[in-house]
Write a structure and sequence with these properties.
By secondary structure, the protein is mainly β. It has one helix and five strands, in the order αβββββ. It starts with a helix and ends with a strand. The model has no long low-confidence stretch (mean pLDDT 93).
């Protein structure tokens, strides 16, 4: 099982994604190949809620929230 396949078991859950230069929190929408997509809530980095696609190689940590 690779990273995307493991994350795909958590689709629909709230996640925190930590990258070297930013922190994102939102709902995990998809995880396939080398990409994940998150519906990000507004934060310091994004003024409004939006869908963000992240390359797996740029992810430092993904935390699955209860």
């Amino acid at each position: 099982m690779d990273f995307s396949e493991i994350l795909a078991t958590f689709l629909g859950r709230t996640v925190e994604v930590i990258q070297a230069n930013q922190f994102l929190q939102g709902q995990l929408l998809s995880a396939a190949g080398a990409l994940i997509t998150v519906q990000v809530v507004s934060s310091n980095y994004l003024p409004a809620s939006r869908q963000v696609t992240i390359i797996n190689d740029n992810i430092s940590l993904v935390r699955i929230l209860p």
